[in-house]
């Protein structure tokens, strides 16, 4: 896992996790999970994913000669699906990919590469915080998109206590953010497809962690995400809508007089696919 760049843009910093080897922050956790499964003697792994974790798993499983079975929703991003088809993996399209992957792992002696229930994954995400404090010792705040919350929890374990930790979610799927931020108009269309997790086994821990770091979690409208993406494009930054979500949360924080300090950082979690 190589260090990812920290880039200054106007008055904030971008942690370019979208420049990991396979294009997402998932590269922090997947290699450690694969190392663990090999240590335990597994020859096969299974994963359910919206795309990024599966792409990372496909790359590193091939590298370590581990057979991989991937369960995907019929709503999978076509560009991500095309990327996955380039690997020697078994792809199963299922209306309930998560539960099917869990059943498959139990019935077929397969290691379940599920980050929200595998404590090894959080260890991988700790590295982001370690890098950030070396790249920017004076970091004042950090904005992290939330899916299952695994990335945020891992980062928090090595984040200095003086940093304000902010989460963010799209209105259409915001079980954490709407606890903190009720200033939104209901929407059903989810454009941040990498953040579609419905099952959050650590929900209470995520909420308490954000509070511990004197943070907040922002509920963001699609219009604001698209506007943030347009800003990135004009600035020469190509990244996923999840990264645009984090920037929109930063803007909402400023508009509502939250303390972000002089050295705010937003996490760009994946490449634009």
Overall description:
The structure is a single chain. With 273 residues, the chain is an alpha/beta fold. It has two domains: 6-25 and 119-268, Rossmann fold (3-Layer(aba) Sandwich), CATH 3.40.50; 26-117, 3-Layer(aba) Sandwich (Rossmann fold), CATH 3.40.50.1100. It has ten helices and ten strands. The strands form two sheets. It has a six-stranded mixed β-sheet, with helices on both faces. A four-stranded parallel β-sheet has the order 5-4-3-6, with helices on both faces. Strand 7, helix 6 and strand 8 form a beta-alpha-beta unit. Helix 5 packs across helix 6. The radius of gyration is 18 Å and the shape is globular. The mean pLDDT is 96.
- Spatial gap, N to C terminus: 21 Å
How many domains? The number is: 2
What is the CATH level 1 assignment of the largest domain? Alpha Beta
- For this entry, what is the oligomeric state of its chains? single chain
Write out the strand line-up for the largest beta sheet, numbering strands in chain order.
1-2-10-7-8-9
Q: What is the residue-mean pLDDT, rounded to a whole number?
A: 96
Secondary structure layout:
Layout lengths: L5 E4 L2 E5 L13 H10 L4 E6 L2 H12 L3 E6 L5 H7 L5 E4 L3 H11 L3 E2 L6 H17 L5 E5 L4 H7 L7 E7 L6 H4 L22 H10 L3 E5 L1 H13 L6 H15 L8 E5 L5
Parallel strand pairs: 2-10, 3-4, 3-6, 4-5, 7-8, 7-10, 8-9
Antiparallel strand pairs: 1-2
Helix pairs in contact: 1-5, 5-6, 9-10
């Amino acid at each position: 896992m190589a260090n990812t760049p920290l880039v200054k843009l106007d008055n904030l910093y971008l942690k370019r996790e979208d420049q990991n080897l396979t294009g997402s922050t998932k590269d922090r956790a997947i290699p450690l999970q694969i190392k663990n499964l090999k240590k335990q003697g597994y020859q096969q792994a299974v994963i359910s994913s919206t795309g990024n974790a599966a792409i990372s798993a496909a790359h590193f499983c091939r590298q370590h000669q581990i057979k991989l079975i991937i369960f995907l929703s019929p709503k999978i991003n076509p560009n991500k699906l095309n990327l996955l088809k380039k690997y020697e993996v078994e792809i199963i399209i299922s209306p309930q990919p998560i539960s099917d992957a869990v059943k498959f792992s139990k019935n077929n002696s397969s290691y379940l590469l599920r980050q929200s229930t595998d404590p090894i994954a959080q260890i991988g995400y700790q590295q982001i915080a370690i890098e950030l404090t070396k790249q920017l010792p004076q970091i004042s705040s950090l904005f992290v998109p939330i899916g299952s919350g695994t990335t945020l929890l891992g980062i928090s374990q090595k984040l200095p206590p003086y940093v304000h930790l902010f989460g963010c979610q799209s209105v259409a799927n915001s079980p954490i953010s709407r606890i903190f931020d009720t200033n939104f108009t209901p929407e059903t269309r989810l454009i941040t497809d990498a953040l579609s997790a419905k099952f959050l086994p650590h929900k209470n821990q995520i909420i308490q962690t954000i509070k511990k770091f004197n943070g907040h979690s922002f509920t963001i409208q699609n219009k604001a995400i698209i506007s943030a993406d347009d800003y990135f494009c004009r600035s020469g930054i190509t990244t996923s809508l999840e990264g645009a979500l984090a920037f929109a949360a930063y803007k909402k924080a400023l508009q509502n007089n939250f303390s972000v300090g002089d050295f705010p950082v937003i996490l760009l979690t994946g490449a634009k696919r």
